[in-house]
Amino acid sequence: MYRTHSNGELRLANVGQEVTLAGWVQKSRDKGFMIWVDLRDRYGITQLIFDEERTPKEMVEKAKTLGREFVIQITGEVIERVSKNKNIPTGEVEILVKKLDILNASKTPPFTIEDETDGGDELRMKYRYLDIRRNPVKDNLIFRSKVSIEVRKYLSDAGFIEVETPVLIKSTPEGARDFVVPSRMNEGQFYALPQSPQTFKQLLMVGGLDKYFQIVKCFRDEDLRADRQPEFTQIDCEMAFVEQEDILNAFEGLTRHLLSEVNGVEIAAFPRMTYDEAMKKYGNDKPDIRFGMEFGELNAVAQHKEFGVFNNAELVVGIAVPGGASYTRKEIDKLIEWVKRPQIGALGMVYVKCNEDGTFKSSVDKFYDQEDLAKWAAATGAKPGDLICVLSGGAHKVRAQLSALRMEMAERLGLRDPKVFAPLWVIDFPLLEWDEETERFHAMHHPFTSPKPEDMHLLDTDPGKVRANAYDLVLNGNEIGGGSIRIHDKETQALMLSHLGFTPEEAKEQFGFLMNAFEYGAPPHGGLAFGLDRLVAILGGQETIRDFIAFPKNNSGRDVMIDAPSTIDDEQLKELSLKLNLQ
Ligand code: ASP
């Protein structure tokens, strides 16, 4: 037996017992006549003591050779500590060692295995197995496991069954590029890795399984944005014989369960907001509603004077920044610089200081009087002491810019408290989205999402106006889940694909299997998928999903530990009938 106890377990009640422990040397202090060693494992730290008078001499000699991260096994007696350490649960005892075995030596680690390490990101990723020994990373992985287990518990109690779907498949369109895998046995042909199990879960509904879930890896070959992983995990779900309302209730239940079990937070019914409302009020389809600063549209109260910038704009819109009236000229100039950065792209910013005495001082006093500015304050909900920030331009762009400013100001004002949870459903998404680059409509969610029946007639005349039975679950400004009621008849699916620019042949080639299935009694169905990595990070009160993934990829999609991706040798290429054509 390697150990009788873990290193987080022993207490005063164990004093007098002989125990065997194993673990890693966190640190050792050699005082000549005595050596102390902190022994660490996943469960904690236990102090060992080697004492010249009470520990056999050869064991003391061996203890002198120990270095950081050596793996050892000891046997000894639990004794009460003279100077107790109140900071750790085992701090009242120590082990008087009788026997020491070095199970494995260790090189000096390239960074300190401490909560606050001296290792940079790249180094920690290269030696991720050492990084995982550190509490913050280890605790995140334990936390993730807890969330996954609660998900499985809740869903299986609710009658969902977990089904594994294949990983070597044909493309599933979720709007990204596929990762592909060449097939050796089928020369010149390729599998795609699933961007999601979308079509399979729909086929499981046709198969009559009724309620499906899977905690599943998905793969999307996207240009890497900050904190995106090319492979990530979804909690993927689908239900048959449901309407949108049933789905929202089922997964609001799951989310509430997680918040309660994992965070001890009880949340009443989640608010719901239409996509249009979210865009109007927050300029964003995943609004952070932990704080206000809602948009106030100012066209009606700002386009009646001689100010051309506003008069020529499609939208004039502002927010009231709490307490912002006290900003100095310099601070406001900096803010204007901030919105003009290329990442935000505003051309300028008009501001109004709402003075404590009820008067206003604006950057456009030349054009607008106090009465005008009072109307702006009313529209943005500004109170004395606030600063109204106003942007103008094309509606779509200006909303995105003001949304970025709103989030930035909330961050600066400390309004984005990670311990506060504000979930909501955003519903009634548009079915289609115009893509400037390809100059055609794309499915905003995916091509299997059903249009709202009452909007179907617009498909030919005004496709951009058609709303979908699609919804997102948003938590603290992040989309943590999204889904839709699906099309379940062949004709509608064919119509949808033709609107997306597929010829009937292409539609048949790519999605014939699904449309065929729809001809054999497909039940009405719908579902959604949560992004597990992000969900876990938010519940864990952190921003970076990489910190909750055991072996993440870096920002260039590389695993720097195993050095992947990598080249393959000519023999392998030949076997796969592949020829590289690198310039
Ligand atoms: N497959 C979708 C996605 O990955 C989720 C869904 O519609 O259920 O976003």
From TrEMBL:
Residues where ATP binds: R220, D221, E222, Q229, E479, G531, L532, D533, R534
| PROSITE patterns listed in its UniProt record | AA_TRNA_LIGASE_II
Give the catalytic activity. tRNA(Asp) + L-aspartate + ATP = L-aspartyl-tRNA(Asp) + AMP + diphosphate
**Among its keywords, does the record have Lipoprotein?**
no
InterPro entries membership: Aa-tRNA-synt_II, aa-tRNA-synth_II, aa-tRNA-synth_II/BPL/LPL, Asp-tRNA-ligase_1, Asp-tRNA-ligase_1_N, Asp/Asn-tRNA-synth_IIb, AspRS_core, GAD-like_sf
User: Predominant location of this chain?
Assistant: cytoplasm
Leading EC class: ligase
**Subcellular location(s) per record:** Cytoplasm
Pfam families noted in UniProt: GAD, tRNA-synt_2, tRNA_anti-codon
**Positions that bind L-aspartate:** E174, R220, H445, R486
Q: What is its EC number?
A: 6.1.1.12
Q: Name one GO molecular function term.
A: ATP binding
Q: Which GO terms describe its biological process?
A: aspartyl-tRNA aminoacylation
Q: Tell whether Nucleotide-binding is among the UniProt keywords.
A: yes
Specify where the region named Aspartate lies, as residue ranges. Answer: 198-201
Query: In the UniProt record, which is one GO cellular component term?
Result: cytoplasm
Which keywords, in A-to-Z order, does the entry hold?
Answer: Aminoacyl-tRNA synthetase, ATP-binding, Cytoplasm, Ligase, Nucleotide-binding, Protein biosynthesis
Location of the Aminoacyl-transfer RNA synthetases class-II family profile domain? 144-552
To which protein family does this belong? Belongs to the class-II aminoacyl-tRNA synthetase family. Type 1 subfamily.
Q: Self-association or partners: how does it assemble?
A: Homodimer.
What exactly does this protein do?
A: Catalyzes the attachment of L-aspartate to tRNA(Asp) in a two-step reaction: L-aspartate is first activated by ATP to form Asp-AMP and then transferred to the acceptor end of tRNA(Asp).
Q: What is this protein called?
A: Aspartate--tRNA ligase
Q: Which gene encodes it?
A: aspS
